[in-house]
Amino acid sequence: MLGFGRSNDGTAGEYALPTASANPAIAIDRSFLNSVYMWMTAGLLLSGFIAMLVAVSPGLINPLLENSALRWGLIIAQFGAVIFLMARIQKMSVTTARLTFLAYSALTGYTLSTIFLIYTQASLFSTFIVAGGTFGVTAAYGYITKRDLSGMGGMLRMALIGFVLASIANIFIASSGLYWITTYIGVLIFVGLTAYDTQQLKKIGQSQLATGESGQKLAIIGALKLYLDFINLFLLLLRIMGNRR
User: Fold this and answer.
1) I need a surface site. Which of 168, 204, 215, 241 has the fewest CB within 10 A?
2) Number of domains making up the chain
């Protein structure tokens, strides 16, 4: 994660947040975050549209249900797309970065299509509302809090690695206890990441890196991070709240 200068409450010995009249950083902040959330929303809408389209198309959903190699291939492709975008973002054009993000969102939508067959529409809708509210409140906290959340970054990354490894292990162990432990811990991890990522993006938005082509690329990376926070939060809450068909 990129690190930038701290933003805080301006107490003795610390820097105060710039005001709109003293510094254009506030305007940059809003423009940058608007771009981040615009692309995040575009990714979520695309994923939802693809998921619903595939769910009602037997020719598209059946291969996903019947072919485990295809499912694993799609999961690997998703990881590959994220790694590729993160690692190559500075060497890409803005257009390539945006298209890669949208391609990842479409791929995610395809793999998520099965949830429409597993869970009732009512529980999908209610869980989406709860996830959206939780995400919104947490992101707002990350944006307005005076507390520096930078120290959470390393802890959250380590917890995320442990969560992923435990989830993979449980595919083979099939422990219901471990399933629920990882579910509740996962919710806490992605709530924390939402606040942390939002504050880090705010700091980027108040730096000169948020301008020009660099800023457009960083907005895509920011959109990807928040997209992942929201999708994972939604899926974990769906485990808890979802009613199966």
Assistant:
1) 168
2) 1
